[in-house]
Design brief:
The chain is α+β, with helices and mostly antiparallel strands. It contains 4 helices and 2 strands.
Amino acid sequence: MQDEHDVCGDQHRFQLEHQLRRLHLGEEVQGTVDVRGCLGVDPHAQVGFTGFWSTVRLQPAADTPPRLIDKLIETTQRVCVNLDTLQRPNTIELVVDSASAG
């Protein structure tokens, strides 16, 4: 026998899954870079990107309750791979293979 909390949770999950099946989602990540740095034209210009922004486009079904849209936005901020990658420093190893091909 389920308690009231479990029944509510199941109902919420069902409602969310139903709404998500009718959701259109897209993401675009853009960045700012001064190409003078990577081209070696200006020794004072940064070589890499100086900033990023991520645009997530949600097109939920018209009858989606606002609280579910808010929950989806909250979840997107928490589990978006691109956003997480850009917000956290990453360890990068440079491997140089100088052996000649052939």
